[in-house]
Amino acid sequence: MSRYNFKENEAKWQAAWEQAACFNAPNTDDGRPKYYVLEMFPYPSGRIHMGHVRNYTIGDVIARYKAARGFSVLHPMGWDAFGLPAENAAKLKGVHPRTWTLENIAAMRAQLKGMGLAIDWQREIATCHPDYYRHEQKMFLDFLAAGLVYRKESWVNWDPVDQTVLANEQVIEGRGWRSGAPVEQRKLAQWFCRITDFADELLDGLDSLSRWPEKVRVMQAKWIGRSAGARVFFSLRGQPRGVADRLEVFTTRPDTLFGASFCAISPNHPLAAALAKEDAAVADFIAACARLGTSQEAIETAEKQGLRTAMRARHPFVEDMDLPVYIANFVLMDYGTGAIFGCPAHDQRDLDFARKYDLPVRPVVLPPDADPKTFAIADEAYVGEGTAYNSAFLDRLSVEDAKAAAIARLQELGHGEGATQYRLRDWGVSRQRYWGCPIPAIHCGDCGIVPVPESDLPVELPDDVDLSGPGNPLARHPTWSLVDCPRCGAAARRETDTFDTFFESSWYFARFCSPRAAIAFERAAVDHWLPVDQYIGGIEHAVLHLLYARFFTKALKQCGYLSANEPFAGLFTQGMICHETYCDPDGVWLSPDDIRQDPGGEPVTADGRPVRVGRSEKMSKSKNNTVDPARIIETYGADTARWFMLSDSPPERDMEWTAAGIEGAFRFMQRLWRLVTEAAADLPAPGSPIPGDIAAEALSLRRATHKTIAAVTEDIEAFRFNRAVARIHELANALSEFRTGSTSMTAGDRWVLRESLETLARLCGPMVPHLAEELWRCLGGTRLLAGEAWPQADAALTVDTAITVAVQVNGKLRGTVDLPRNSPDDTAREAALALPAVARLLADGPPRKVIVVQNRIVNVVI
Fold first, then answer.
1. How far is residue 47 from each of residues 11, 109, 111, 424, 645, measured CA to CA in Å?
2. What pTM was computed for the model?
3. 10 Å Cβ neighbour count for 848?
4. On the chain, which terminus has fewer CB atoms closer than 10 Å, C or N?
5. What is the Cα–Cα distance from 403 to 397, expressed in whole angstroms?
6. What are phi and psi of 742, to 5 degrees?
7. Per-residue pLDDT averaged across 197-202, rounded?
8. Distance between CA atoms of 175 and 159, rounded to whole angstroms?
9. Could you give the 3-state DSSP secondary structure of residue 388?
10. Facing residues of 806 across strands?
11. 3-state secondary structure (DSSP) of residue 300
């Protein structure tokens, strides 16, 4: 019995697809409906991991399926090629970041091609190529002209050892992730994209993204954070000389103003800076707060600390009431105005602060059914609905009515106004790195900031860069930044910051539409292909990448580049790949490849020491529980890896990688091979007319085949790949039973067998394309299966002619009968009364009544 030779056949069919240019998409409309499927492009780390295998398998199934359904499919691939890892590798290995990146791209390209992906490789891009980022620099200049980018000073996390800005995620317990040095907050001039100009459009546009996961839309809505409330103006006393005598606070709860017991400002507030000049204790407290970094999460989870100042804030509604003003480490300068009023009774953070500093707690919202004489706040603030009390003119109003009344009174008194606030901040895109896209701006002492002329693009990175020292390598370069001002000709210097790498990934999907064009996008191509019909990637990108891509699309539309309003019409977020974790007796994490079994079946190390098996966790290098896809593909074949990825669990959920699972997938590949090859010689010629002698058993197989077509089609459309795999298993079982039960086949039997085997190969095509091509060829197919149409189910064969009907006696189930669909009531009645269990109960006489619900139930009343 022959075995399927995956090594030979996978290479053969990959070469055949490439030679036939099966997956090359047209630039524009070719008369077919378009379908653009895209997986989030990878960072070229050097090797693909199992997350890549799952991600790209899902996308490939959709691409191949849609092509078979008659769509013009665009399914491209590229590389998110700038970033800090390349710089770190350069420092460690003494290799240029470009060399390291391009070598990794070549290695990963070969690995992805080995998966048999239906990718249009002629559209491949890498964001580190000047031919790519020159268009990005042109976009920046257009954004600058349109007022969509600007430069200002802002607070950043600063690593004093590496002398660079750190993202919030790179600050670990107040220290730089690489140097370990205590992080400082500094004000630096940074470039920003004015994403807040699109806040309402980004938020309201989520309603149109019906094919996005609800959890992603909720996460983006929270990130944008539109809040209606009021700006409240507190008159100040005791403020430093030369500063304003008013403190402006934004609040979403103006109804609780009568419960205010303090005001607090951010350590980065201008008032705090002014106080620090006069008071060393204030300066020391601000410095301590700075060591927290700028991460909102770090600030919110830190112990609440405050320093009481000499300032007092006059209550806007109570003339003789002054509130103490604190500098507090939990107040964010980037949200609202960098100042708050604290109402401890109705905000837990404020309550914790008030208890710590012995401040009054005055409840002003009375819960339903609570007694105003006895209601008090203990350890938990009351944040529910209720009515205002202890609040003068607001008493007895609902929370919402009290908010409106408070805003009206603030405006009447000149002490505030209604306002809408957003959590969303403008996007800082400056990075003090070498391996990134240079920002095309020039700083002139006379002219200020001058855009690089378009004719001078791209501004390329210098090759002769020194990465060994701290700080920004471009700023240290002796000559690269020295240029003449294009406006006045005076000596000037280039901008030495590079773009945040999210900048490149915010528009790459549009470049795929015309990747070799001399301009960023050929308008006809980009308007034809966008938006992406199906985008696929991890939930970890739910906010930043996806939000920035949405902003970029709207900004590009405003600047006349394209017509799409959203980048991705559909979004699918796949789950993670998990594996058991293993530790040796010393607590060292072990790779699954290092685990052996002793004679009793217990896991041990290679030298026989016991192994502690931990819980299944996301595959990661830190836990050493990764499995190398290259080894799996080498051992079992790409189709086996793809099949297991699709079969184990719903694709949106995490899946468990097991050796038993991949072995089972491999056995099923061999089973499919045997099913087809053992029967192929006895089948009629392809395209033979259907004979007239179809026996009952063969008709049953036909029905199973067409039901499978309908079910697999529905499952793929709904991303239920594991269910589609299960349906194919069921069809394989039906085929095996048919062949086993047929001692001598009629012409009709052989015709039905061919139809079913051909269907099996075609349904497997998107999932295991190499094996499916080989099966198709064994069945006499003369063209590539990749170019064949998707099978169509005969509706008449998907409907059961017989149906199982329940039989009850006095409402209790006594049995079932199989009847032709839509049988007359008399037929159903006779069959039900003939059941032995019913006949015994009717021994004493006929039933009082027989109720028939056609195709569902017969109820006998005795």
1. 20, 9, 8, 36, 18
2. 0.88
3. 9
4. N
5. 9
6. -105, 100
7. 96
8. 8
9. strand
10. 816, 857
11. helix
Q: Cα dist. 257→10, 318, 767 in Å?
A: 71, 10, 62
For the chain, percent helix, then strand, then coil, each to nearest 5? 40, 20, 40
The gap from C-alpha 151 to its chain's centroid, in whole angstroms, comes to 30
Q: How far apart are the first and last CA of the chain?
A: 62
Query: Residue 128 has what DSSP assignment?
Result: T
CB 93 within 8 A of CB 99: no
Contact 99, 110 (CB under 8 A): no
Q: Hey, what are 112's tokens?
A: 């992805």
Q: Which two tokens stand for residue 214?
A: 């609800």
687: left (phi over 0), alpha (psi -120 to 50) or beta: left
Phi and psi for 53 in degrees, rounded to 5? -60, -45
What's 545's DSSP letter?
H
Min mean pLDDT across 559-568, 650-659, 782-791 is at 650-659
Q: What angle do CA 605, 645, 768 make, to 5 degrees?
A: 120
Q: Which amino acid is at 756?
A: S
Distances (CA, A) of 659 to 20, 453, 595, 666: 36, 58, 12, 11
54 and 577 in contact (C-beta within 8 Å)? yes
CB atoms within 10 A of CB 179: 16
The tally of CA atoms less than 13 A away on the side-chain side of residue 639 is: 29
Cβ neighbors of 682 (< 8 A, separation 6 or more) are 745, 750
Whole-angstrom Cα distance, residue 255 to residue 406?
6
Strand pairing of 448-451 and 812-820? unpaired
DSSP assignment of 393-430 equals GGTT-BHHHHHHHHHHHHHHHTSEEEEEEES---EE-E
Provide the 8-state DSSP code for 50. Answer: H
Gap between the Cα atoms of 403 and 490, Å rounded: 58
Higher pLDDT, 29 or 743: 29
Helix (H) or strand (E) holding 724: helix 721-741
pLDDT reported for residue 298 = 65
Structure tokens at 240: 């430093």
CA-to-CA dists, residue 419 to 157, 411, 552, angstroms: 30, 11, 27
Give the Å distances, CA to CA, from 547 to 520, 532, 634.
21, 15, 39
Number of residues in the chain? 862
Distances (CA, A) of 384 to 67, 260, 351, 364, 387: 54, 17, 15, 12, 10
DSSP bridge partners of 156: 186
Quote the tokens at residue 443. Answer: 């700083």
What is the per-residue pLDDT across 771-803, written as a single tens digit (0 to 9) for each? 999 999 999 999 999 999 999 999 989 987 778
Q: Do 758 and 785 touch, CB atoms closer than 8 A?
A: no
Could you tell me the sign of the dihedral formed by the alpha carbons of 87, 90, 93, 96, in that order? positive
d(CA 213, CA 211): 7
> Is-contact 857 815, C-beta < 8 A?
no
pLDDT for residue 717 is more than 90:
yes
Q: Which residues contact 532 (CB under 8 A, 6 or more apart)?
A: 36, 37, 38, 509, 567, 568, 569, 570
Q: Residue 388 phi/psi, 5° resolution?
A: -70, 140
8 A C-beta contact, residue 387 and residue 396: yes
- What residue type is assigned to position 139 of the chain? M
pLDDT score, position 615: 87
Helix H segments across 788-853?
825-834, 836-841
3-state secondary structure string across 664-722: HHHHHHHHHHHHHHHHHCCCCCCCCCCCCCCCHHHHHHHHHHHHHHHHHHHHHHCCCHH
> For residue 121, with 0-12 CB atoms within 10 Å meaning exposed, 13-18 middle and 19 or more buried, which class applies?
middle
Return d(Cα 570, Cα 87) in angstroms, integer: 35
Q: What is the pLDDT of residues 139-183, one digit of tens each?
A: 999 999 999 999 999 888 888 887 777 766 567 777 887 788 888
Which letter does DSSP use for residue 123 in this model?
A: G
Q: What is the mean pLDDT of residues 205-215?
A: 96
